[in-house]
Amino acid sequence: MREGGRTPSIWDTFSHTPGRTAGGEHGDIAVDHYHRYREDVALMAELGLGAYRFSISWSRVQPTGRGPAVQVGLDFYRRLVDELLAHGIKPAVTLYHWDLPQELEDAGGWPERDTAYRFAEYAQIVGEALGDRVEQWITLNEPWCSAFLGYGSGVHAPGRTEPVATLRAAHHLNLAHGLGASALRSVMPARNSVALSLNSATVRPVSQDPADLAAARKIDDLANGVFHGPILHGAYPETLFAATELVTDWSYVQDGDLAAINQPLDALGLNYYTPALVSAAETEVAGPRADGHGASEHTPWPGADDVAFHQTPGDRTEMGWTIDPTGLHELIMRYTREAPGLPLYITENGAAYDDKPDPDGRVHDPERIAYLHGHLSAVRRAIADGADVRGYYLWSLMDNFEWAYGYEKRFGAVYVDYSTLTRTPKSSAYWYGKAARTGALPEVDEVF
């Protein structure tokens, strides 16, 4: 959508390129939250939700990724924040959810160091505009997807398939986080919380064989250590360097970068959907990997051609992802140990199902209710085990444009008729709203 001066992001370009998304679908209108935000906020309030996490469109604020802000773009977010606060809903802002301004990609994108400095300028602009009313801030959402799916397997925008660029992008996203966090803190009240959201993987070996353990360690470094190493501990894992030594020499990590990245966090967001199960690969195995991250002839795992991915057992969602709440508990406890004293938020968790209205127009989704009950129970177990989890955000409020999957995967607790954009809360929306209001989990078979 180009209203208000917004220019194309890499996802606009990608989704308008034939063959890139399911059915050639794009997000030009999607659910039209831009025009319907008051209706959507009123629905959140009706359900009893206490917080709303949303993302800023960089190219709506800075159309070229550089220079002064376009105030009409910022005004939309000012109105949205005011509407949320008027309904007693806490806004949580994510600065970057994969939509790099196309002009910055044309200049090289995340593999180029300058992009991190452009992000810091953008962060400062938004922090100055909204920091007086928004207390919860997230710099980046799932930088792994931006780097490894955007520049490795090519199933996400900008659709490049370059192993070296993948790791360069990962480093510069880390640098963007550090510089952006510093920029936010330079212009916002000290009370505000600065975090980032990682889609850290729960990686499990198929056996305790040393080769399978080594495979799990390699994927853990590429999925997790590449980000939490420098962000939480100020260093990349040495095993990551060893695993990727035939891909890159990491010479783009400059003096001072690790200190700039290793900024103190006020919280850490964790996004979880399903665990990963890996083993050492047979030498003749090649081609696409069953890692749940889309079909591509190109791997998103540079330096890991000797690793095989396996489908974990159990029921699956429409994404083909196994439902396993124990993976969420394991992930929370890992970061409780990894960063003791750091508050945690579950910033994404949810499931896609083939939801359809019944003849009366109601949408019953008992599978999603069971999914939510299982995963929220896992969060409660983690809290009982000593984890400091401060909040949980469902992905997602509404059915939406689900990236390369277009509109065929419905993650929402609210059903959207894409022909009319009518919103219909599913049974899970009422179940989830009651959980939010009461702090207790309703029974899975409670009628709504």
TrEMBL record:
Ranges for region Disordered: 1-24
What's the protein name? Beta-glucosidase
Which family does the similarity line name?
Belongs to the glycosyl hydrolase 1 family.
Report the EC code(s) recorded for this entry: 3.2.1.21
Active site residues according to the UniProt entry? 348 (nucleophile)
Carries keyword Hydrolase?
Answer: yes
Q: What keywords is this UniProt entry annotated with?
A: Carbohydrate metabolism, Cellulose degradation, Glycosidase, Hydrolase, Polysaccharide degradation
Instruction: Give me the reactions it catalyses.
Output: Hydrolysis of terminal, non-reducing beta-D-glucosyl residues with release of beta-D-glucose
Q: Does the keyword Hydrolase apply?
A: yes
Query: Entry's Gene3D superfamilies?
Result: Glycosidases (3.20.20.80)
| InterPro entries associated with the record | GH, Glyco_hydro_1, Glyco_hydro_1_AS, Glyco_hydro_1_beta-glucosidase
Natural source organism:
Streptomyces shaanxiensis
